[in-house]
Amino acid sequence: VSQSPGSLGNNTIGDLITGLDSVIAVDKQQEGQIETNLRKWNANVFSAYRFDEGLLRGVTVGAGANYRGPEVLGRNPATQQMYWGHAYYLVNGMIGYDFKWKKTGVKVQFNVENLCNNNDQQVLASAWNSTANRLDEYYYYLLPRTYSLTTTFDF
């Protein structure tokens, strides 16, 4: 026997309203709270300067930073204690050189990601484990310093 869409099953309308009230009450408790596994503060900045004349003509230098604020890992539902992860930052740098080769524009660029080699452990995800009464965390490490060299040709 199949039920038609909108069927209440074995529930009364009163049962459904009570269940909906419970869901709304849980949502209201979380109003104004920061969502778990998110960072409230993030910032990125990067700037580059190209020399157009003189001895360094065609050279570009640049640097930037990425900041990630502390992460909300979770909340103990019994005590409302908040658990926080750590903030971190990454610094990146680059140097490039533009020149002409047989009427073709050439740009060679050397990049360094994670210049300071920040290898902090970070929490990828977390959830409150009510059975064990603890916060379960799953970790990752920031990528180590990396280098890349690129060449671009403009025809």
Strand content: over 45%
Low-confidence stretches: none
Query: What percentage of residues falls in helices of 4 or more residues?
Result: 10-25%
Q: Measure the end-to-end span.
A: 71 Å
Number of DSSP strand runs: 9
Overall mean confidence score, pLDDT: 88
How would you describe the overall organization of this protein?
The protein is mainly β and 155 residues long. It has one helix at residues 13-29; strands at 42-50, 59-68, 72-75, 82-84, 88-101, 104-113, 121-129, 134-141, 146-154. Strands 1-2-5-6-9 form a five-stranded antiparallel sheet, with no helix packed on it. Strands 3-4 form a two-stranded antiparallel ribbon. The longest helix has 17 residues, at 13-29. The chain is elongated.
Descriptive keywords:
mainly beta; 9 strands; two-stranded antiparallel ribbon; five-stranded antiparallel beta sheet; 155 residues
Set out the fold topology.
Elements: H1 13-29, E1 42-50, E2 59-68, E3 72-75, E4 82-84, E5 88-101, E6 104-113, E7 121-129, E8 134-141, E9 146-154
Describe the structure concisely for a colleague.
By secondary structure, the chain is mainly beta. It is built from one helix and nine strands.
